[in-house]
Amino acid sequence: MAIIEVNGVRKTYAGRPVVDGVSFSVDEGEIFGILGPNGAGKTTIVECVEGLRVPDAGTVRVAGLDPVADHDRVTLLLGAQLQESELQPKITVGEALELYSAFYPHPADWRPLAERLGLHTMLSTRFGRLSGGQKQRLSIAMALVGNPRVVVLDELTTGLDPRARRDTWQLIEDVRDSGVTVVLVTHFMEEAQRLCDRIAVIDRGTLAALDTPSGLIARTGSSTAISFTPSEPLPDAELSGLPGASSYENRNGRISINGTDETVNAVISLLARLRITAQQLRVAEATLDDAFLDLTEHPGPADERGLTEQAA
Ligand SMILES: Nc1ncnc2c1ncn2[C@@H]1O[C@H](COP(=O)(O)OP(=O)(O)OP(=O)(O)O)[C@@H](O)[C@H]1O
């Protein structure tokens, strides 16, 4: 069942559409990613969902409510962790949670929430003294303290070190497992690939694609890159006939083939049949990076793509 419905939303600044007819819906209980290049319109879209901006056209519904007309009711069921949220530097973690929970008629008990988020040891620490990761955890706690049905997290892990980022991913999964729907705006492909059930790719204010991470990856022309140096030259006729292969090249004796899983198996069979050994055989799967570059405005050179190498 959809908890968020965005239908034909359009937002224009100084005559320039920054969101241009975007539609999607978010199902209750999923982690829904919103991915796109800088300035694509992601924050504008989520702020329309939160009722912080008013669309020029189209409709938004959160649990059937209009986030602008029914702002007070939507605020009770939607928790928002805003990009770069700041608090008074002197307020302590405990005071901030106490204060925010007082805004809601049925708040979560903030003490176990603080414990779940690893904040219980710093309840008397002032906001100004928290590290970036601790501030992020506090901002998640504040987004959850009202017991929301949906939480919107915008650029949650920007600026965090790899360990803090992974801890935060675990937190997001825990939040979803507790029954809260999560909308996650992110620049990090690995984050989106690991966490999201579905992803809306936004490009220049429009919806470029909406699919599962593996569905987006499958849209890339070739999902697997194979490379190796054969112990003896391979006949061109054999390479050109490989099933599933979209291209191949021979550069100074090193063979590179773009293809599919079927191509990998065919290469292995071919090498066995010709009794040729392959040195430095590498098989790299396409990642969400490849899909993102294919789907958005500025594709980068193929050799900059984020292929994850796997030993064959
Ligand atoms: N209040 C505003 N007035 C004028 N232009 C705005 C305003 N808010 C956003 N924009 C412009 O709208 C476009 C989309 O901005 P938005 O913040 O939604 O993008 P984004 O995808 O979230 O970007 P980023 O990933 O960099 O955060 C940008 O070109 C931005 O400069």
Keywords for this structure?
312 residues, alpha/beta, Rossmann fold, Alpha-Beta Plaits, 6-stranded mixed beta sheet, 5-stranded antiparallel beta sheet, 14 strands, elongated
Structural description of this entry:
The chain has 312 residues and is of the alpha/beta class. It has two domains: 2-211, Rossmann fold, CATH 3.40.50; 221-311, Alpha-Beta Plaits (2-Layer Sandwich). The protein has eleven helices and 14 strands. The strands form three sheets. A six-stranded mixed sheet has the order 5-6-7-3-8-9, sandwiched between helices. A five-stranded antiparallel sheet has the order 11-12-10-13-14, covered by helices on one side. A three-stranded antiparallel sheet has the order 2-1-4, with helices on one face. The longest helix is centred in the middle third of the chain and has 16 residues, at 162-177. The protein is elongated and about 75 Å long. The two termini are 42 Å apart. Mean pLDDT is 87; it is low at 299-312. Adenosine-5'-triphosphate is lined by residues 13, 18, 36, 38-44. It is found in: Cell membrane. It comes from Streptomyces poriferorum. This is ABC transporter ATP-binding protein.
